[in-house]
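Ticket reopened. Same input as before:
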Amino acid sequence: MHISLAITGAGGAGVITAGQLLLDLLAAHGLYGLMRRSYGPQIRGGEAASLLRVADQPVYCLDDRFQLMIALDWKNVDRFVDEIPLGAGSLLLHEESAGPVPPEIQREGVRALPVPMKALAAQEKGGRMNSVALGLAARLLNLQPEQAAALLDKRLHRKGEEAVRVAQANFEAGYHWEGLPEPVFSATPASTPPDWTLTGNEGCGLGALRAGVRFVAAYPITPASDMLEWLSPRIEQLNGALIQAEDELASINMAIGAAWGGVPAMTATSGPGLSLMLEGIGLAVASETPVVVVDVMRGGPSTGIPTKSEQADLDQALHGLHGDAPHLVLGPLDVPDCVLTTQWAVHLAEQLQAPAIVLSDQAMGQSRMLARKPAEIQFIGQRKRAESPGTDYQRYAITADGVSPMAIPGTPEGMYTADGLEHEPGGKPSSAALDHVMQLDKRARKLEQHDFGDLWAEMAGEGELAVLTWGSSTGAVREACERFCRQGGRVRMIALRLLLPAQTDKLAQALAGVDHLLVVEQSHSRQFDRYLRAWHALPVQPRVLARPGPVPFTPGEILTELESMS
Amino acid sequence: MHISLAITGAGGAGVITAGQLLLDLLAAHGLYGLMRRSYGPQIRGGEAASLLRVADQPVYCLDDRFQLMIALDWKNVDRFVDEIPLGAGSLLLHEESAGPVPPEIQREGVRALPVPMKALAAQEKGGRMNSVALGLAARLLNLQPEQAAALLDKRLHRKGEEAVRVAQANFEAGYHWEGLPEPVFSATPASTPPDWTLTGNEGCGLGALRAGVRFVAAYPITPASDMLEWLSPRIEQLNGALIQAEDELASINMAIGAAWGGVPAMTATSGPGLSLMLEGIGLAVASETPVVVVDVMRGGPSTGIPTKSEQADLDQALHGLHGDAPHLVLGPLDVPDCVLTTQWAVHLAEQLQAPAIVLSDQAMGQSRMLARKPAEIQFIGQRKRAESPGTDYQRYAITADGVSPMAIPGTPEGMYTADGLEHEPGGKPSSAALDHVMQLDKRARKLEQHDFGDLWAEMAGEGELAVLTWGSSTGAVREACERFCRQGGRVRMIALRLLLPAQTDKLAQALAGVDHLLVVEQSHSRQFDRYLRAWHALPVQPRVLARPGPVPFTPGEILTELESMS
Amino acid sequence: MSEHSQPKAAVKPAFYKSGIKPVWCPGCGHFAVLSALTKALAWLELPREQTALLSGIGCSSRIPAYTDLYGFHGIHGRALALGTGLKAARPELTVLVAGGDGDGLSIGGNHFIHACRRNMDLTYILMDNQVYGMTKGQASPTTDPNWDHSKLTPHGTHMQPFQPAALALAAGASFIARGFSGDPAGMTRLLVEAIQHPGFSVVQVLSPCPTFRPEQKGWKHSIHAWDWEATDDAVEAARRIHADDGMHTGIIFRAERPVWQPVRCQQTTVEAIEQEFVP
Amino acid sequence: MSEHSQPKAAVKPAFYKSGIKPVWCPGCGHFAVLSALTKALAWLELPREQTALLSGIGCSSRIPAYTDLYGFHGIHGRALALGTGLKAARPELTVLVAGGDGDGLSIGGNHFIHACRRNMDLTYILMDNQVYGMTKGQASPTTDPNWDHSKLTPHGTHMQPFQPAALALAAGASFIARGFSGDPAGMTRLLVEAIQHPGFSVVQVLSPCPTFRPEQKGWKHSIHAWDWEATDDAVEAARRIHADDGMHTGIIFRAERPVWQPVRCQQTTVEAIEQEFVP
Ligand SMILES: Cc1ncc(C[n+]2csc(CCOP(=O)(O)OP(=O)(O)O)c2C)c(N)n1
Ligand SMILES: Cc1ncc(C[n+]2csc(CCOP(=O)(O)OP(=O)(O)O)c2C)c(N)n1
Ligand code: SF4
Ligand code: SF4
Ligand SMILES: [Mg+2]
Ligand SMILES: [Mg+2]
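Engineering reply: fixed in the latest deploy. New output:
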């Protein structure tokens, strides 16, 4: 049971607020939901859209079609055509006074219904169309108006009583507008209703805090800034600190400085910033300093499309460092998984004294989801420390597991100099071939030999047909596989959470017996496919469904691929 | 006919000068030679070694063993043990007063011969051991003392007559020292003697000038600085300019600014600098500005081993950019090939309006070779310009070959704004999915569809056994294959000069029928092997001979692999 | 110099504008900078194709596409490096560089001081709104230490803001001025003088961001022109900048300093250079 | 303050030295900086394990390994960022940062000015030899415009050198001094005062590079101490720096300015924060 709807409007029309309120309202009804925000390039006043999906169970992706669209105006609405596919039977409510439905929007079989939203809003002084739209949506989704009244009171409280009253009246006007057809959805609360609402960016922030990150240095960049803005006021109350650095070169080096000082540290950025951090990440590799970099990917290359999503920084995260520089690369699979994956990344970085790059993206980072609270996992950064080093202490000692106890400044007798130059076990610079090989070996070994357990991938289903994916494409793949199974098909889904070190054997085992393989990724140059070829041994030549952003994959198109392959 | 010798000594002992003079002397005898320099970490006064190979035909790599070593002292000589393998029959001349041969150096069957070099030098006031060593070497290589006298006069001229006389007398004292055994080499001039002497760094510089580069911006870094120092006084006399920038971020952006202004432009750096340039290179991709970046690789990761060689920036050069960012990656195969490959890179960058990364390394860049003059090739940067753009000019027009005519500032009516943001054909920023895909397609297409002719690889030999390599490992591979064939073996050698865009079909064709494949590369994490897997379809699972720097591959060890595989 | 604000009849400012509609918010100060710039270009009658405008990333840095010049919208913080390369390679072009306080003084701070030191004949327009507009309102290096409206620095930055003029002076710029987007005529005059000045000219333009710094609407009341002439004495300039409240407009410093441009000549050929390789 | 140059009996400077032999050339000024630093540490009796010394890349930046402190030899130009992160995370440590004129003012120029502005309690030792030693002798931002011994700039740079003190002052540093490695006692005094100063202290040390700038051996004749006390007046400091020949030693500027350190407290728990996610 699910339905998709979009609310669009010019800047200032408040469609994002309406969407968020609708999500709150769903939660109050024990329903699940996902809301993706879509913007134009303007900083303020540009057109915007709330893209929502409502269901009686968790939803991780948008659907193939939208059953309902509410257009507050037609301002640049063509920009959203790609992102809001309407189809036969879709209902399109549009502001009466804004003129006829533009041809780009009109589709075969779409039921267009002009609504006097402006006039309804104007019944109240200071009334706003977005509250009317919320009322229309609530009615069509069969939601309780009383819940809405309470919610508006809660959310608009700080704007004053009058504002609340006007919004409630506008809502009612929409809700009770007599021109509305029958509801298009009937709300049955989920048996285990959502108990959390979060965005992926908040999820990464929380995961970091859960794992013990108490230092963040970063430079603002879309779409990572809101993770930082979420973290800043919170981390400082946990006795931590967030520094707004002068640039990303400073950010990563500040984080390394803090981490070297013993405090689990993180930075967050997007592609252009990651590019600037690579030299610093290499220093973390060579000096064996744990640090976590969250890259909330956006459209590339270069400045690209800052407000839109893509999975095309994979190449860089995997292979962007100069020299032989083993490190960790992880990717959360959906909004709530941002918590787990980031927490795990911090944990691993600390344990393995290596940098970890976490690849989130705009679609995940800036989507809000109603979800179950992510399980508490006991991943607290536990660095192997040299507590009482002694005079023969060797910071880069060659150990069996490759991890060498680290003396934290303040530890008596542990003084040593961390170095990005190649060094012998004591840390003294060395250009001898043997020292080089020993250190290269140990830095590779500590990652390769570590047992990463079961978290390396999410797996479901069985059969000789398999789908491999990663990151935010997982949502659509997961749903496609579910549909395929409901149709009687058999398919294995494997979504990689840990990309480096590559879990070659585990993946080979997971793919044993597979004779048809589909790879799904959101990049133009097939980066994930190339990663699989380079680091893994696939049993068969895969079919590759690769597409750049910003339009997300839908379950339907993946289902079509699956059908055609079986 | 070839021989290898090393001259080692503490700082100031002048072993590099001695090696260079010896190379000059070889040239005067119509012989070929290669000289690799090896240093310790000190800026001045550290130990050093001249590693030479002498032959009657061009030599591109050092040999398996050194037949002769002249040690002026034992200062830190253990640092060179790895790099100067002695063996049975090797002759070791060492300064008498420096004490016995240290155990690290002594090998089974090495003939050690103490020589009073210091005393011989002291026969002249201001005498120097390195001239004595040169005399010893000349005698043992059967070179003419008269030629040496003339050469010393030429090279030391500016130091005054007395200096020349002293050096000549020291040389004679060494040459005629009665304790010397029979010569170990007999010098027969090559039928086509060398007519050039150059280093790889000079070669890259020259290749750039040949191709029309008239702007360079760079920041000093070992081992690229001497390329820049070679270029600076020369480019300015060609009406060009070299700017020492404040850092590598500035270097790459200055080069892009100049190139956008219509002047073919370049920068040169090493790993840490390349890391800092990646964001800029991405801008060149998105704005379609040609620019060439030469990376003279050194030991990594991070600051690594600045004075030593490695082939481990391959990953970064191939995949270090964020987003989908198609670009060119090339690697010269040996010292003289630096001229051709850099020239070609500039040519391609200009023709395809894309950035090109040229991967040289310390071993190639700082080795001096006696060679034949590299052929003149008519690769002069020819950019497709919009000469008379007209009012409907579209800078990023979608064309069949993906290349859009570029209006250079100064061209009337051609005004447009270059952009790193995604854009529509006119250059106006756009976040529409269609514009994004069209521009991503065109930028990929212009590289993929270009016909790169035969230069993409050097190939030799035939058979079902093949060796695949790239860059400076080619020298040793080439010689190993030659030896293998002389032994009656059959082997195909393929050394890739063009790495991106990957010439997948051509390589598949070159490997048709191969049933055993050896991959040779100087990196710890098998970067080249992974590149081959990711971008190519190899007919068989290769055996991989991968080793980090700084010790170079020798023909013998590759030969052993070949033998074991056939 | 007041005639500068009036373009000559021959060329109209609109001649320098492209048809592209700015993404800027209503009331953004950057509109006035664009308009003053085109007026200055018209006054100087600069040929469009001989003029280049390069920028970084930020709301301000969007300006090149709104002009009909050769434009380059580069990457964040590197506009001055782009401009330096262009000017070095093509000295005959008029090269203008523009960007915001974040672009120029935060991520781009190093290129800023080095451009001042190099003193090439470039004009740098620093569109200062004391905030990162494009990324939705974080503090910049010129932001008041107590401004606490950014979620990233919820208590304010507690750091002394940079005075761009002081940095430029210490780093060696030879022309330093401050304008206000609310005074288009004055700004046009400054831009004309800056472009005419041989050497590196810094024009800091106070350009309000009504979206994230609505209080900057008050700037129009606190702005005042300096009542003295530009000085060429660095110590005197330092004194004035120090005593200043950051709200004075006019030319602060103007000096004749050697203008840097790479030495070059046509004295050899590649063939002649190749002779050096003969052993 | 002359007693500063004599360490107290309790701790010997050698206590702060590691056994590692420097890679420096004979006669390099950096030896004296190392020695003065260890003297200053001994005078202050700083616990070794509570003191960190971070650096970038260059001959000068090799200094951490030669001390017996917690050291970090980072990457070129980013030492101040490393130090800032460490100090923010571990405020109780004494954090020293060292590097060369290339490291600190060329590639690291942005972090330098931002560290000055931030005014954390850090001490920055700028070992200035007016050349890139490690890469074998190129001009740095403090090199005389006419020095033409670098092959990279064979006619000299023709650019005005930065005055580190002027930049530091304009950017907001609260303690600015200049020392000379040929005057170890004076340098030790300066370092003691710099470390004691609360806030960002910049100590520019003129530290000759006999290998690439042999003429700097003459510095010992041109060096002279300032005959005035440190000022806390920025304009007066600017005047003095401007009138200076770059060869005066002593404390140039010392002022009380708010020392920045991130605001923090232990007021909540992760569990409490998680409550916010309940819809
Ligand atoms: C490397 C990099 N880091 C961060 C960003 C994100 N970013 C874009 S514009 C901007 C700041 C813009 O502020 P300013 O230069 O003052 O311009 P304004 O928008 O205020 O006019 C930032 C941080 C980016 N584009 N690239
Ligand atoms: C990113 C990067 N670029 C360039 C270099 C090469 N490099 C090493 S040290 C140095 C300059 C050192 O000069 P300075 O800081 O003045 O120190 P000095 O050697 O003179 O003491 C340079 C350019 C590098 N290591 N990393
Ligand atoms: S956010 Fe501010 S600076 Fe950006 S366009 Fe809007 S008003 Fe202008
Ligand atoms: S090169 Fe100069 S700075 Fe470097 S160690 Fe030698 S003398 Fe010192
Ligand atoms: Mg701004
Ligand atoms: Mg220096």
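Chain C touches chain D at residues 106-110, 113-114, 117-119, 141, 155, 158-163, 166-167, 169-172, 234-235, 238-239, 242-243, 257-258, 260, 263 (CB under 8 Å). The beta strands of chain C are 51-55, 70-73, 94-100, 123-128, 175-180, 201-206, 224-225, 248-254. Please confirm and we'll close it.
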